[in-house]
Write a structure and sequence with these properties.
alpha/beta, seven-stranded parallel beta sheet, binds 2-phosphoglycolic acid
């Protein structure tokens, strides 16, 4: 696990966007798997700017969603679907035939998960997966206690996730389940980029780097990933031992 720290979240976002842009330049048919939420917001904005300014060809890029709230319609502004369309898919003009997002309204969640796992396999696997980190160390909706042997799956949300998740919605929204790429997809991703900024992430980032590797804090499992890159601003890194920064 490589940790990189930037003085501000703006610089962190720029650096992360540069990594993604370089990946797309090197491999125009890159398969990306994208988180939503506050953590990657600035990175996607920077990437859109870079793509426009530098005329990076995204016409072959393939996009998979990391997760979705079960029961939340795609036109709800708090859905992952809505977020990815607003902040990535539409600005980069990614055609629908190259986008694969979870259907949170599916009546057959296990079929939806199998289709997702098969679609990723068919695409040749994920080149770069971009994730945030929950206050409880979840990655996607891989909550504490998750079975790491799972591919895409539906899961009961942790209480912390249900509470923190309210920030994405315009009014109080009952949240109970999520649907997510599993740790098998996380481990199989050729590059795993985790983004975090702000003081409130400092404690979970320290635990990610220092706590025993295991499902109690799912983000610790990223230490076992063959190519994981953690990009932080100074605030999120503020509790890290100096020896862990590079
Ligand atoms: P955030 O969410 O980026 O909005 O902080 C991260 C997460 O819950 O994975």
């Amino acid at each position: 696990m490589k940790i990189k720290v930037y003085p501000t979240s703006a610089l962190q976002s720029k650096a992360a966007a540069q990594v993604i842009a370089d990946q797309i330049r090197t491999k125009p048919d890159t398969v990306v798997c994208l988180a939503t939420g506050d953590s990657p917001f600035g990175t996607y904005r920077e990437l859109v700017r870079m793509v426009r300014d530098s005329h990076i060809d995204c016409s072959r890029l393939r996009v998979f969603g990391l997760d979705e709230w079960v029961g939340i319609p795609p036109d709800n502004t708090g859905s992952c679907h809505y977020y990815l369309h607003e902040n990535f898919i539409r600005p980069l003009a990614i055609g629908n035939d190259r986008v694969y997002l979870f259907d949170g309204l599916s009546k057959d969640l296990s079929g939806e998960c199998s289709r997702m796992t098969e679609a990723i396999r068919h695409a040749g696997g994920i080149d770069i997966m971009i994730v945030g980190i929950g206050m409880n160390g979840h990655i996607g909706f891989n909550e504490p206690g998750v079975d790491v042997n799972l591919w895409a799956h539906a899961i009961e949300l942790d209480e912390i996730t249900k509470t923190v998740g309210q920030k994405y919605f315009q009014s109080a929204t009952p949240l109970s389940k999520g649907i997510t790429q599993g740790f098998q997809q996380v481990f199989a991703a050729r590059t795993l980029m985790m983004l975090a900024h702000g003081k409130k992430k400092a404690s979970i980032i320290r635990q990610t780097a220092e706590a025993p590797v295991g499902i109690a804090i799912p983000s610790t499992l990223l230490r076992q990933h063959k190519n994981s890159l953690i990009m932080l601003d100074e605030e999120a890194a503020s509790e890290l031992a100096p020896s862990l920064r590079n």
